[in-house]
Design brief:
Blueprint: E1 6-10, E2 16-18, H1 21-27, H2 32-41, H3 45-52, H4 57-67, H5 72-80, E3 86-89, H6 91-103, E4 107-112, H7 119-125, E5 135-137, H8 138-141, H9 148-151
Parallel strand pairs: 1-4, 4-5
Antiparallel strand pairs: 2-3
Length: 158
């Protein structure tokens, strides 16, 4: 049986509730269908992941505004109101994290696919992000997926 030496936590959706709907449902006056169309066709997850991989937020926003000038105000809201997309800590997961940190039986690290520009917003808001032995931020690594080679600095290779 393999001994577990390290535990890796994802941040968005695991420890921190992150959802663009917190901004855009209000922006579209509760019209979920219009909001979903906008997020599926203008500020898409693919577009967001490009910034999560290191593309500058201002440049990405300006690029998209040039493509879709009629949606300029909504596009600018995406990163302009990013902090409002943070719904709060997912308390059950944070309790598990706290238990593992206090236990000290494992190396506990984290990863996030957030931009290097948005991650500091979350880091400032959530004190438990200081508990980790290391955090891999895809925007700092300039990658969409934190491949196992990146973790070699934090834990033994897989």
């Amino acid at each position: 049986m393999t001994k577990i030496e390290a535990i890796i936590f994802d941040l968005g959706g695991v420890l921190i509730d992150w959802n663009p709907e917190y901004v855009f449902l209000d922006a579209f006056n509760g019209d979920r269908e219009k909001m979903q169309w906008f997020l599926n066709n203008i500020c898409t997850m693919n577009w967001n992941e490009n910034q999560d991989a290191g593309y500058p937020l201002v440049k990405a926003t300006n690029d998209l505004v040039k493509q879709f000038p009629e949606y300029e105000n909504y596009i600018k809201m995406y990163y302009g109101n990013w902090e409002q997309m943070l719904g709060g800590a997912i308390e059950g997961s944070v309790k598990i994290l706290k238990h593992l940190i206090d236990n000290r039986a494992y190396k506990v690290v984290a990863l996030t696919n957030w931009s290097s520009e948005t991650f500091p917003i979350a880091k400032k808001q959530f004190d438990f992000l200081k508990w980790f032995e290391g955090i891999v931020v895809s925007g700092e690594e300039k990658t969409r997926k934190p491949y196992k080679e990146i973790f070699n600095n934090y834990i033994k290779p897989f």
